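fold description:
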Amino acid sequence: MTFRVRLQNSAIGQAATGINVVFSTDDGALTETQAAATLPALAPGESAFCGQDFQFSVAPDALPHWANLHFSIQATYAGGTWTQTLGRAQRIARPDLLVVDSDGSQDDNESFVQTALGGLGLDYDMWTPETDGDLPVAEALAYDQLIWLGGLRNPDINLAERAALTAFLDRGGLLLLSSQYASSEPLNSGLALRCGVQTLAMAPGTLYLATTPAMDPWFGDMSFVLLGSPGASNCLQPDNLVVLPEGQLLATWTQGALAQAAAYRIQGGYNTVYCGFPIEALRTHSSRPNSVTLFTFLQRVFAFHAANPPQPLAPVTDLTLACTSGGCLLSWSPVTNAGSYRVYQSPEPWSFPEAPLLETSATLLPLPVVEAGRVFYQVRSQH
């Protein structure tokens, strides 16, 4: 890994010269290969990057963990020599799992998930949009499993995050999508459809008891209790769902209209679990003999995923566009096991819209000539 350090002199400080920085770490998985750097003189308020890159290597067998990096800084000023040591924690390698706490400080119920994952002995990273920003596509694609905690944020998935989750499903993996406000944002209906469900409507504050099909191989014989201590008490506006033919019923509300509450889907390229309620709220209750905690539910989710390993399709890598005065022909080689292809169009090569231009089962596509400007195309294979 290579990185640089930027230092800023205090606005009320003195001019600093002879600035040097020495990098070190006591982490056994890391080896410093470039550990010293210098900086130019800094007047009060000025900042600059170090003149050399720092470098370290990571042992090939290193497991995901946080490493402590140390930086010893020395500078000369009118009163003598100033020294200080600063520290930084750096993630080394990646775990398989990312947990997105979409509602951030609106509640602290992510702790229920952290406790459950700790009990399962699973390592994970956390992403909080409130402090980390919208989840980027590249960040989502760095993980094989993703848990989305909707919590109290309404709507809990915006345009950028929807693009990240869509790209994640296109690539393949496990997505556990927990949302009680999906029906409040029609643009998120496409994600629900890919999970094998349709959201009907919110049922404010009335639904907190659900049950799973007795004979389901992965989620059978469970009861869900979603309110009260020691639960998360954040199940405020859960959704009524309709499980589509490509999905499998996971849970049904035992209150209200007795609508469907959760579903799962084995798509081939990805596995999804879609809950129309915040999973953090799961708890046990003596009146519900089969009620489960989040620990048990997540244990079932990961067992379901392990038994149905996704087999993502190969990407389209040989896209060709041939144009004449009469039109253009977009072509590519067939991808094994692909049932169709989604074609995307954009004026820029680095960003494509969420919605495809069209979907086709062919590998030759006639297109009109673009009269002005530039157009770029991307093709994604689908099961």
Observations:
- Residues 294-307 form the longest helix (14 residues).
- The chain has a mean pLDDT of 90.
